[in-house]
Amino acid sequence: MSFATGHIGLNVTDLDTSKAFYQRVFGFTVAGESQHDGRRYAFLAQDGTLVLTLWQQSEGRFATGLPGLHHLSFQVADLAAVRAAEKVVRELGAPVYHDGVVPHGEGAPSGGVFFEDPDGIRLEIFAPDGAGDRPAPTAAPTCGFF
User: Where does the record place the VOC domain (predicted)?
Assistant: First the structure.
């Protein structure tokens, strides 16, 4: 038996804000949505494949201190794509950790940018290679401590 991640579902406080954020940062397209009061949602896709579902049924900010989701990580082809995403994230004013692109660990070739969405959900965009010439901000895996 083999498993692969299907799609990810996130509770959000404001569907329009979150939808715009994920479309702008990741380039996702809307594959379906509901604007009915009390049942608002959006299905976001990439190249025709469902990637993320957003459900407007939350209040407040994401609680990082409680058991559950730590962060979502998305892989891109190279460090240039990470830097392009970082530029958009900064333009949107989203919180960025580690002061930008960093390797996953000291001397690791992989690395990325770590940031938050509008509800405080922690996100990562990384490339498998190209980040090894930068210093790691922590001795432990970067993606685990932000």
Answer: 4-128
DSSP string, 95-122: -EEEEEEEESSTT-S-EEEEEE-TT--E
Closest CA to 142 of 50, 93, 54, 73: 73
Strands 111-116 and 96-103: antiparallel
3-class state of residue 26 by DSSP: helix
Q: What is the pLDDT along the chain (146 residues), one digit of tens a residue?
A: 999 899 999 999 999 999 999 999 999 999 999 999 889 999 999 999 999 999 999 999 999 999 999 999 999 999 999 999 999 999 999 999 998 999 998 888 999 999 999 999 999 999 999 988 888 887 778 888 88
**Is it true that domain 8-56 has CATH number 3.30.43.10?**
no
pTM of the entire predicted model: 0.94
**What token pair was written down for 120?**
């405080």
- 72-144: which CATH architecture? Roll (3.10)
